[in-house]
Amino acid sequence: MYALALLLLAIKSALVLGQAPVVVENKAAFAVLNPNGPFRNGSQTFEPNPNANLTPPYFQVYDERFNAILGPNPSIRVIVENDTFAFAHDGCVWIEATDQVFFTGGRIQGRPVSMINLNDLKTSPTGLINFTILPLSSDVQINNGATLFDNDLLLVTTGKGSLPPSLIRVHTQPPFNDTIILNNYYGRQFNSLNDAKVHPKSRAIFFTDVTYGFENGFRPAPLIPNQVYRFDPVTGEVRVVADGFSQPNGVAFSPDGNTAYIADTGETQGVTGGTVPTNPATIYAFDVEPDTQAFSNRRVFAFADTGVPDGLALDTNGNLYVGSGDGTHIFNPQGTLLGKIFIGVSSSNMVFAGAKRLLLMADTKIYLAEIAATGQSLNL
Ligand SMILES: *[C@@H]1O[C@H](CO)[C@@H](O)[C@H](O)[C@H]1NC(C)=O
Ligand SMILES: *[C@@H]1O[C@H](CO)[C@@H](O)[C@H](O)[C@H]1NC(C)=O
Ligand SMILES: *[C@@H]1O[C@H](CO)[C@@H](O)[C@H](O)[C@H]1NC(C)=O
Ligand SMILES: *[C@@H]1O[C@H](CO)[C@@H](O)[C@H](O)[C@H]1NC(C)=O
Predict the structure, then answer these.
(1) How far apart are the C-alpha atoms of 320 and 197, rounded to whole Å?
(2) Residue 241 near residue 294 (C-beta atoms within 8 A)
(3) N or C end: fewer C-beta atoms under 10 angstroms in the chain?
(4) Which of 130, 131, 132, 366 to mutate to test the pocket of ligand 3 (most atoms within 8 A of CB)?
(5) Which ligand sits nearest to residue 279's alpha carbon?
(6) Using CA atoms, how far apart are residues 194 and 243, in angstroms rounded to an integer?
(7) Ligand 4 center–CA 167 separation, angstroms
(8) What start and end residues bound the annotated signal peptide (predicted)?
């Protein structure tokens, strides 16, 4: 009877597509490691539980509060894959009305913008769905980040040669027509724009600028400091809200709009600069000044233990999801690492598709994690 119950339980587990192990990582148990090692560097992954012996993807729980985010039956599986090129790197945006997800490619010529339709999962016999590369105009020169802006995609381009980095609105349906909304600071070009978010209250666009275009050989030497800007699309005003970074990358706001987060990926300095382990791989938090929306009271929020913290997203409870060197790291609003969605390889960015669905961009794959959390709405 007992054996039969166990068998039925095993079958039930096997039937839940993508159900993945949940490993409780005891922080006190690895506070002291064998002095003879092995230790690791920030480019290598970490599984502190020597008995886990698991193949990613799975969930690592570093704080029991992560269980409420995962819910009772968390699952994760690949839903899109193409091993021939990095089609899903960054700039992921979910469109609620159509259940489409857009994303941008990385480390390849042109970095195309592609889309999937999550409705296709309902009819796919294999659980895998196909992506479509968007036929965008030549306005879009090497795309990186993206967010939602007034029901359009807002693409953040890095520029190419002398062509300026830009913020570009793109219609989400054919013919995917676009409008450039910003490409300079009082006549000066940006370096290589990276990512953007819309502020939940003012609806101004906040965006980051890095020098990766120069370090990767397709932009001129730095033209202006790497900093964070605020653009008011109504008045056209653009202003600097924070500086003092190495490579300010992902940007996000708490649901109330009072706290800003900036991920600094300075540890990575592109093809020419390589990896500099003493540079920031750090997420900073700021207060958003009520009158000016300048960022003040800068503090270290968290340091990514693996790789660099890149794309940022929040759930409705204000927990921060960070694309990192081994998957998604999830921090509570106080900066405690609650857990990881551990895929064992880098995931630069992720996006909530509403409630209980988080999509992880992993270059040649997209993972769908089904967890209990709901994404903060970006449809502002
Ligand atoms: C980290 O260690 C691995 C394995 O020894 C090595 O291949 C890699 O180059 C190291 N990375 C850095 C940035 O030092
Ligand atoms: C992968 O992408 C390449 C390049 O676009 C394409 O030719 C190939 O058909 C794709 N393979 C699959 C399995 O979708
Ligand atoms: C994806 O594309 C391939 C090649 O065109 C096709 O055989 C397959 O049926 C498609 N899959 C889905 C889920 O549409
Ligand atoms: C796309 O074209 C339509 C029809 O002309 C226009 O209303 C819309 O504003 C355009 N969208 C963008 C982002 O350029």
Answers:
(1) 14
(2) yes
(3) N
(4) 130
(5) 1
(6) 15
(7) 15
(8) 1-18
Alpha helices (H) along 23-164: 66-70
Whether the CB of 198 sits within 6 Å of ligand 3: no
Amino acid at 49: N
132 CB less than 6 Å from ligand 3? no
CA-nearest residue for atom 11, ligand 4, is 171
With 0-12 CB in 10 A as exposed, 13-18 as middle and 19+ as buried, what is 188?
exposed
Number of residues written out for the chain: 380
- CB 116 near ligand 3, within 6 Å: no
Atom of ligand 4 nearest to the CA of 170: 13
15: in domain: no
- Please give all residues whose beta carbon lies within 6 A of any atom in ligand 4, as ranges: 152, 169-171, 177-179
For the record, the structure tokens of 121 come out as: 């999962």
Pick from 349, 351, 355, 348: nearest CA to 370: 355
Asked if residue 43 belongs to a domain, the reply is: no
Ligand 1 mean position to 34 CA, how many Å? 20
Confidence of residue 266 (pLDDT cuts 50, 70, 90): very high
Quote the domain boundaries for residue 280.
Answer: 20-25+55-374
- What pLDDT digit, counting tens, does each position of 25-65 carry? 999 999 999 999 999 999 999 999 878 889 999 999 999 99
DSSP string, 1-16: -HHHHHHHHHHHHHHS
Determine the pLDDT at residue 11. Answer: 37
Lookup: tokens for 377: 């709405």
